[in-house]
Amino acid sequence: MLSKLNLARTVNKHLVLATLIFSLIYSLPALTAESDCPKDVLCASENSVASPNLRASIDKTRSAIADKLFGIQLSAFGDIQTLYTNTGQKRVDRGAVELDIAGDFREDLQGALALVDSPLGTAMTVGFVDFSTSGERIAPRGRLQVEKDYHIQAGRFDVPFGNDWQFFASKDSTSISRPATTDLIMNGGYNDTGLRLMTNNGSVNINAYVMNGFNQGHLYGGRLGLTPFSDPFSLNEARQIKPFEFGFSFFHDAATTVSPQSDSAWALDAEFTKGNWRGRMEYLERKLEPVLGQSNRLNGWHVTQEYGLGEMIEQPATLFLRYDLTWIAPSEVSIGNGSGDERDGRIATGFKTQLGSSDVFQWKLEIQHYFQTTPSTRSMLGYGMGTMWYSQLVLIL
Q1: Which of 225, 115, 108 is nearest to 165 (CA)?
Q2: Paired residues of 93 in beta bridges
């Protein structure tokens, strides 16, 4: 059994790497395209890191690949970042490499998948088919709808809960880390297999889903979003600016004979944009029962502020500041599980900028400081260093 599992993991890993190498080979023309500069004039290459034409060349090559692959759209991104070791030393390690694939079966039926290779292994984190009344193209990650219509999806996908689920991918997020509401309460984000219905009339959007869940039964939930001033959904590659959105999310996973533990959660989220300023907030509450004969309640919230420097500097850059707080009832301290605080409180700040005038390369810097820590957090890598510094380089093809 273990040999078959290892064989499947090896095949999946080789499939991801082979497909990524294939896409990179076809991207070479974008990196070596001829310049319009006269041969006897020394000038900067159109496809250098500093040139905005690099993105246009890559997009042109992606379109050429789609023509050869019957309209299948390929895109990829990956990152390297600094991490802390067990001894508190910093080291550079690779993050996740993701290959996104999307294609049309017919005008109203599309498919999408995302293959991810990380130090933890290789997996297909997204893979679904989508039926749409308008025939609008979907995206493997993030928000999907852009027109007023209905979508029915079946397969594996990131489940919309709160608003941070849109920024799981490194290329979509300004920060390196995720809010504590995602990391600690949602265990890094909810991704599952199931069926969901999405509808949007321009001011109200609804997601309703039935998933496999955590307890070998079925999980039911959804999200209601209100966007009175703009369309609520936009594609990852052209996310629309929303003046304001308010959302309410809920799910419930009932106990079963196999797993006697029930799991339910609800969240409030809001997002606003004004000029170069964008703000997001979430409040989450999750209840697990019974756990060791009692109920556990996880609570948390965060406020994140981002400001785009716009024309203030030559390089496009965005600053961010986040404050988050999470706690568990009963707390680890109250039941005698180590020393520390009853809550986790953290401040994180940093920025994201492009390397050159193209968005092909992104560089991020983040500083974190905990002002309250539970016993579990005090055992995390790098905690003993006090204020922690992280950096990340992202490549987007």
Answers
A1: 225
A2: 81
Structure tokens at 156: 């594996």
Tell me: pLDDT of 239 over 60.
no
Q: How confident is the model at residue 133 (pLDDT cuts 50, 70, 90)?
A: confident
Distance from C-alpha of 156 to C-alpha of 129, rounded to nearest angstrom:
9
Question: In degrees, to the nearest 5, what angle opens at C-alpha 334 toward C-alphas 296 and 285?
Answer: 30
Q: Pull the structure tokens for residue 305.
A: 């502020």
pLDDT 10s digits, 65-117: 877 877 788 889 999 998 877 666 778 888 889 999 888 888 888 888 899 99
HEC per residue, the chain:
CHHHHHHHHHHHHHHHHHHHHHHHHHHHHHHHCCCCCCCCCCCCCCCCCCCCHHHHHHHHHHHHHHHHCCCCEEEEEEEEEEEECCCCCEEEEEEEEEEEEEEEEECCEEEEEEEEEECCEEEEEEEEEEEECCCCCCCCCCCCCCCCCEEEEEEEEECCCCCHHHHCCCCCCCCCCCCHHHHHHCCCCCEEEEEEEEEECCCEEEEEEEECCCCCCCEEEEEEEECCCCCCCCCHHHCCCCCEEEEEEEEEECCCCCCCCEEEEEEEEEEEEECCEEEEEEEEEEEEEEECCEEEEEEEEEEEEEEECHHHCCCCEEEEEEEEEEEEECCCCCCCCCCCCCEEEEEEEEEEEECCCCCCEEEEEEEEEEEECCHHHHCCCCHHHCCEEEEEEEEEC
For 341-391, the pLDDT digits (tens) are 788 899 999 999 988 777 889 999 999 998 888 887 777 766 665 788 899
- Could you tell me which CATH number the domain at 2-396 has? 2.40.160.10
Nearest to 352 by CA among 305, 392, 396, 296: 392
96-to-80, 81, 150 alpha-carbon distances in Å: 8, 10, 32
Specify the residue for token string 């756990």.
Answer: 291
- Reported as half-sphere exposure (CB side, CA atoms, 13 A), residue 38 has a value of 2
Residue appearing with tokens 């991207």: 27
